[in-house]
Amino acid sequence: MSQPKSIEISNVTRYQNAALNYYLGLTDSPYLHYGYWETLPVPADELTLARLRSAQQAYTVKLLDAIPKGTHSILDVGCGIGGNAAYLLDRGFAVEGLAPDPFQQQRFLKCTGDRAIFHLTTFETFRAIKFYDLILFSESSQYMSAVDIANGAAKILNPGGYVLLADMMRSDANYQEGMFSNCHVVTELHAALKQAGFTLVKSEDISAHILPTIDLYVDTFRRYGLNTMIYVADLIAIAVPPIHKLLRWIFRRWFKKLVVEGLEASQLFEQHLCYEIQLWELTVDS
Which pTM does this prediction carry? Predict the structure, then answer.
């Protein structure tokens, strides 16, 4: 397969990728997604990485429950490091992964035991040689336009095929700048899919069940990431004061806003976003 052309990635997406890589190292999990907390933690509960891993497993089970009977071939778009694909392969589905990232390719093939084909390309430039029963977008929809998702899926699905989309979305269309601003507006995504010939079969809002993960991320960053930054800065201030002064200026100029926004991620999510699992069916005569 030929190598894809250079891909333009927005700064918002790059910040999110950096966060994903950071937490992948922390969690030691085969999944990159937010998970699904079946039992919501009460204030007295401690949010732990072990509980997050359990929530991530529960999320994959929930995706499986949303797959219609009779589905066999699945294209996992934005497949991450292969956790979802491996789970589905173990249950008899024929799964292929797609992502433009060689790092994810390596991890995906290892996680799936080389049982699945990996397409190193973007969904927009993907040239399918077959049709699929279902296309899965698990926390990958924000990396492409709503129109590209809808039209691209319609071209490579079998008649009556499905799009299963699970992701964070903007319930507030006026939220247009910030760490989650590349997420699709719910109404705009719906309009694009309907225009391409899809019908919404079912939709479930699971916002409350992924919010604990955001809380955990924020708490982990506050406890370890932020305190580590402060500790390193103090050491530099003692050892090399001029460099500390320069780094302090750089932080205030470019990074302070990102850190503050990251610490407010839970509030931003509750105010402007939701997390939904949506199943769409392609009309037979589309």
Answer: 0.84
Question: Could you tell me the pLDDT band of residue 178, with boundaries at 50, 70 and 90?
Answer: confident
As a whole number of angstroms, the distance between CA 33 and CA 198 comes to 25
Determine the 3-state secondary structure of 136 from DSSP: strand
Residue 27 confidence (pLDDT) above 80: no
CB contact at 8 A, 141 and 189: yes
The DSSP bridge pattern shows strands 273-282 and 157-170 to be antiparallel
Mean pLDDT of the chain: 88
Q: Which CATH superfamily is domain 16-208+272-282 in?
A: Vaccinia Virus protein VP39 (3.40.50.150)
Letter for the amino acid at 154? A
Does the structure show a pLDDT above 60 at 30?
yes
Q: In angstroms, what is the C-alpha Rg of the chain?
A: 20
Cα dihedral sign for 259, 263, 264, 266? positive
What gap in Å lies between CA 151 and CA 232, rounded to an integer?
A: 49
Cβ 86 vs Cβ 109: under 8 Å: no
* 83 within 8 A of 31, measured Cβ to Cβ: yes
> pLDDT tens digit string along 89-112?
999 999 999 998 887 888 899 999
Give the separation between CA 272 and CA 1, rounded to whole angstroms.
Answer: 41
Q: Could you tell me the strand order of the sheet in which 73-77 lies?
A: 117-120, 94-99, 73-77, 132-138, 157-170, 273-282, 198-205
Cα 118 from chain centre: 18
The 8-class DSSP code of residue 28 comes to -
Contact between 108 and 79 (Cβ < 8 Å): yes
Distance of CA 37 to the CA centre of its chain: 16
- Domains in the chain: boundaries: 16-208+272-282, 210-266
